[in-house]
């Protein structure tokens, strides 16, 4: 069995996002580290009525907590071969799952990344998801509204970044042109567009001061969330991790890498199931689930083991 672990981006945060890992003993250090960064236990935070789970800083930290806590379930299952790739903020979490940084470092970097993005973005810009049109057509419509291609999900699916009014107009035009779905997403930052060039520079400076850990024996193969290439040169990989903040992400290439690696099992860690849905389309022969689809921690480990 070869397992691909996909780490979610923002947008799917919800009150039950830690239901499977909240009491899982191996995940306790992750939650403790998160409390130091957030100032409160994330398991309690997500349950507070009206809590803002989609603020950029909080959202990015929560997504990394979900990924790292979920990763402890994967470790308990002892898969033979594993590849790990992350979507947007999930790309940072992947470095934690791959053993390159400890949990607290990943979570503090998530806070730094979000703060840099907020400082660069200002107000009034966001992201929109469009599915059901060729990428070239989506790009043409986006350019006409002064928007940018942020993420290439598939040949007919993309995320676009730009000013919120322009994205609203773009969604109307895309639906009129035959798109199956076109919605402004619940995020507040035009991630992966040139609007965040200064954030990339600031985050790269923060990464330059860190010395990654040597991955332990049996660590998963780490795939860059920017272009789907395996990370062999650590410094080059960290540079990509910073650049992806302001450059188009090719998530379709990441899914191609999973298929080429021979993955027959795919698990999405993090809130939501968007990556699992994309993986089912891109790797139809694989067993695919999102962590959110399970009812128990033991169910996850048994499924990974093929039981």
UniProtKB/TrEMBL annotation:
GO terms for molecular function: [acyl-carrier-protein] S-malonyltransferase activity. Keywords: Acyltransferase, Transferase. GO terms for biological process: fatty acid biosynthetic process. One of its GO terms (cellular component) is cytosol. Signal peptide: none annotated. Its EC number is 2.3.1.39. It holds the Pfam family Acyl_transf_1. Residues 6-303 form the Malonyl-CoA:ACP transacylase (MAT) domain. The keyword Transferase applies. This is Acyl transferase domain protein, putative malonyl CoA-acyl carrier protein transacylase (MCT, fabD-like). It comes from Methylorubrum extorquens (strain ATCC 14718 / DSM 1338 / JCM 2805 / NCIMB 9133 / AM1). The lineage of its organism: Bacteria, Pseudomonadati, Pseudomonadota, Alphaproteobacteria, Hyphomicrobiales.
